[in-house]
Amino acid sequence: MIQPAAPNITWDASPNFWPGRSGRQPLAIVMHIEAGTEAGTDAWFANVKSQVSAHFSIAKTGEIRQHVQETDSAWANGAVAGPDLSIPWLKEAVEAKVNPNFLTISIEHEGYPDQPMPAAQTAASLALTAYLCARHNIPADADHIIGHCKIDSVDRGNCPGPTFPFRDLIEKAAAILNPPAPAPAPDPAPAPAASSTPAPDHRTQVSLDGVTCTIDFGCKSVTWS
Ligand SMILES: [Zn+2]
């Protein structure tokens, strides 16, 4: 898995979080839809009375804000109702009664569940997701990039809603993180094989009356010995 560069992120602190993760690591990224505006969500997260937050929110413009450090637990995914127990880590968490907030990174998206996201927002969501997957060693697949509805299908069944592009997002994040191996470079042209044929020997010897004569046809010399 390669580590993509961090997208531009504006810090916008929320007081609503637990410090730390109860000794655990984030295992999954949970997508939300704000069902409202970015300004309204930012104000809601900044208000201690709301008792809600997310690690990140993404405006329709593609601007990314971070409200809670990834090492801390945002208050986004705590209520579990009708969870999808086909997701192994979620099944384990439910059985062990571990609050999903300890195990997840949450991303809010400005807009409404039945409205497709603008291209700038989709691109920002992809860049942030790929960055977070690599940073926290989270696989880019449908068990680890999920909707809020997978944790609470009762009260949050429409979060982030039917138009959220999970398939496209997961495929593109996986392609960013695990690019296909480049085609191998062609082998360099083989060096000419060293000739195994010995250099022709032009010499020959003749004997004449006890005298040996070496005749070198190559240089046309004659040596008597
Ligand atoms: Zn939600």
Give the percentage of residues in beta strands: 15-25%
Q: Which fold name is given in CATH as the topology?
A: Lysozyme-like
- Helical proportion, percent range: 10-25%
Give the domain tally.
1
Strand arrangement, major sheet: 1-5-4-7-3-8
Total number of helical segments? Answer: 4
Largest sheet: 6 strands, mixed
CATH class (first level) name: Alpha Beta
The parts where pLDDT drops under 50 for at least 5 residues are none
Rg (C-alpha, Å): 35 Å
List the ligand species: zinc ion
Average pLDDT, rounded to a whole number, is 90
First and last CA, distance: 78 Å
* Overall outline: elongated
SSE pattern, N- to C-terminal: EEEHEEEHEHEHEEE
Look at the structure and name the CATH superfamily: Peptidoglycan recognition protein-like
CATH architecture label: 3-Layer(aba) Sandwich
Structural class: alpha/beta
Task: Please report the total strand number as a whole number.
Answer: 11
Protein architecture, described:
- It is built from 4 helices and 11 strands, in the order E-E-E-H-E-E-E-H-E-H-E-H-E-E-E.
- It is of the alpha/beta class.
- The strands form 3 sheets. The chain has a 6-stranded mixed β-sheet, sandwiched between helices. Strands 9-10-11 form a 3-stranded antiparallel β-sheet, with no helix packed on it.
- Strand 9 and strand 10 (211-216) form a beta hairpin.
- Helix 3 (119-136) packs across helix 4 (166-177).
- The longest helix is centred in the middle third of the chain and has 18 residues, at 119-136.
- Residues 32, 148, 156, 159 line the site of zinc ion.
